[in-house]
Fold each of these.
Amino acid sequence: MTETVERHEFGAEVGRLLDLVVHSLYSDREIFLRELVANAADAVDRRRFEALTQAVPALPENAAVRIIPDKAARTLTIADPGIGMTKDELAANLGTIARSGTRAFSQSLAEAKPGDRPSLIGQFGVGFYSAFMVADRVEVTSRRSGSEEAWAWASEGQGSYTLAPAERAEDGTDIVLHIKADAEEFLEPLRLQTIIRKWADHITIPITIARDGKDEPANDGTALWRKPKSEISEESYTELYRHLGHVFDKPWATLHWRAEGALDFTALLFVPGMKPFQVVEGERESRVRLHVRRMFITDQAELLPPWLRFVQGVVDTEDLPLNVSREMLQATPVLARIRRAVTSRVISELKTRAKDAEDYAKFWENFGTTLKEGLWEDTEHRKDLAPLLRFRSSAVEGWTSLADYVTRMKEGQEAIYVLTGDASEALAKSPQLEGFRARGVEVLLLSDQIDAFWPERLERFEEKPIRSITQGAVDLSKIARQDGTPDEAADLSRLLPLLKDALKDQASDVRATDRLVDSAVVLAAPADGLDLHQQRLLQRAGRSFGAGMPVLEINPRHPLIRTLAARAETDAGVAEIAEMLLDLARVQDGDSPRDPAAFARRVADAIAAGMRPPPAA
């Protein structure tokens, strides 16, 4: 058999990452058992489900995760009757480590508080490798359910591993840890029992520990969600939350209820207390687990809409058959009703928690961007979500709601005004706000990418239209200015035609505006076109959107525009400055001039023309 042993190198940077796991988390070594038992339980759940829907043998009646310490051999075995792995799956699952990357893992590890470090194991997909904290060699023998072949994987965690044919009488996986000399405490059944009670008591499959030749039960195995709330401690809720999400924080909200009547189901859901680590945006589907009469069926039933995908937990129902198929899950009206009921309950909880502004701000900073996706895609719940929104504002510190904004609207103000862009700090300094500030009119500052799109779907709040201040002409004439009497406006009757003619290929219109104070020009989108920020986002994505040309608005009270208006009466050369004005507006709005080199030359020429030579000595 030695001739058929294959030696492989681990994926890139595994040596460095294993060193981080083994040494930086040394004081948290007991979590290796949590990770290995959780993996074993997941494998059993997966086999149980596939046995219902595919040609996979059913679980044996006495199925359990067995933990077998052997002091004489100094080995610890975790055996499960789960789905098992093929040769290729062993190589793929155990031969590549930390998809999120060593650099990201080490950075998060350095920044984490000591008590938070175990959560990084689950977050970065390195749970199996925590075994090397206590073992100097790990051997995995696995037989895929329904297959006659078994394969053995082995490694000392030094940068390579081996694969070889093996024997296993039944489907499932054995993990054998050769325990280090300084980790012999993990060969004591009592120590193992304590760890299981701490980390895995809620796992529904039985867990046993071999002691004096007998397998003794190690976990309660009761479905926590089936217990009365009065019998469940906060610690028990937290441990289940951590197990389901592979995290180590505490939930921000816990929802536990039983629905009876037309629908019969129990739900235990958690809103996380921290945003999960993601190098890139992951899947958008909800991963709430569906159980039927305590039996795990799938975590792909999409029990919540994508905009609530951060919610974790379990829904257990009596109203579906145990052999429910994936196709039936898509078609059954029972599940559709459960989805509606669960979604409504989560929204109701968020509305209740939103009454505490400081507490709700923690949730919003973690998941507000995701929640806003519902405004764009979910017609049924759009109106329910609107009161839950929070924004930065040009007028108040911290977060504010649409309802609070409406109470601060000025007399004569007809709309809720918003400004979208890449960062609220930059938006707060935008010249687009000048005329609004001069009148004390508040503008909401929207800086998430989704903010460029959802206002057109929501349209109104409390009968007030929601308007982007960069789209169309904003009429502020009904609202009195608060900054004193403005300077007299210049007569633009001659200047505007010159500018329009000069910019006919670059701007759809040139018009005067009363929404500027300190700036000479500003850009706007046509009333029937896309918001300026929408246009920029689509351009970055390489999308064609047929947006048409922008509008150039000029301030008739600005010294530059007054001077140009005076020169326009006699100097047709004013039109040559038109393109510079358009480029100035682009730069103010965060864009680049169409021709940066030409713009730089024009600015340099203008500066030189305006400078007088120093007096002679």
Amino acid sequence: MTIHDDRQPTHEAGPHRTFDSLSPITGDVVASHPLHGEEDVAAAVLAARDEAAWWGALTFEERSARLVAWKGVITRRLAQLADLVHQETGKPHGDALLEASLGIDHLGWAATHAAKHLGRRKVSSGLLMANQAATVEYRPLGVVGVIGPWNYPVFTPMGSIAYALAAGNAVVFKPSELTPGVGEWLARTFREAVGRPVLSVVTGFGDTGAALCRAGVDKVAFTGSTATGKRVMAACAETLTPVVIEAGGKDAVIVDHDADLDAAADATLWGACSNAGQTCTGVERVYVHEKVYDEFLGLLVAKAEGLRADDSLDSPLGPITMPKQLDVIRAHIADALDRGGRALLGGADAVGDRYVQPTILVDVPEDSRAVCEETFGPTVTVARVGTVEEAIRRTNATSYGLGSTVFSKARGMEIAEQIRSGMTAVNGVITFAAVPSLPFGGVGDSGFGRIHGPDGLREFTYAKAIARQRFKAALPLTSFTRTEKHEQQLVQLMTMLHGRGTTLPKLGRKVRRGR
């Protein structure tokens, strides 16, 4: 279900067609990969059923040991993986190393915490059902289909793959057609460490992803654009297959008057321009308190002036991986300038054939494309606000709701709690993604469901509840031997348990939120 990039030729190779993975830096062929069709995908899912039966029957400890072994293989070959990510995406080696390292950390957390969060535990049965012993556990769904993105081909899909595997599922992974080699590398190293293809890969374009949605998997985890996410949901609806959707974003930074401005400017620049701006939780909008607006803007421009994107080995910014995105970035900048915005850095000439230079836009109308739509490039709009409340209102005035950032010394948590987004970083940027115990996901057009943390583990399970009778009930409530006397006793018991009202808080009194 990913976007078919016209720069990728297909070929006939024996019984299978193939397509090429190309370097976005040079255009050279990195490798050729199978173009899997509907029958291939169906066969992969059928084979995964057998693997799921074996894998799901293992204990948490047995699965953990195997996942930790896989983690060790990836870690020992970290440089090799980073080089492959660099070849297929064009991102700098350092960024590829960081991405892969975070993926390893999440794999380690999922492998060692699944038992704690998914294993059977006792729950209270209450006084009414005191004769019952109540337990709940979280069981694997079976086979999970993962459709991954190209911008973070290790870290992002690993948030689904690692957690689905730790929960006891087999996984069929469809990587982006721009980064198929990374997906195959992950599956190959898994089989080397574990000995069985519990993680398998199918490669191809949108038709391959659509086939995975219709192949009878027990859940699909998708990361990509909002538009493609809707098509994934439509395909999955045909078989009533549940989905996790991590879609686009239009994340904002709020800079309060008491913020550490140097840190805020540094974080804004990195959040907007790292990975050439191709980050779903990247910074695309900034709202700065008027008291510090000029100073912040001066710091941001000064830090960005020395930042360049080119094909040199030491370039901090890589190319735009998907060529069609260049048209989107160009259109957003043009619309902002045509409507009265100003480019303090970059601008109309910032978009080249492969690279986009950092662009800082000001005085951009709030209803412009650069403010309302996901740009997915190294650009950012900066706006002056009179109050933090205005900044919050503007931040929330979007259909997206993925991540956000707040810089404030005194009111950081207070502001963060008022932002409608799945995640917020306070005095940092995108830090929530690196904390394995925190759930990751959005609201609105940014999708639904969660990966990472206990929520991410449970996303790939179903809850199994068991009530076991310990002794005969005093009141035969679920029997035709129940009498009027028993019913009167039930009323008396309910009155004793629940008849007393609670005192509501007085109007106007601030109720402290849970921490």
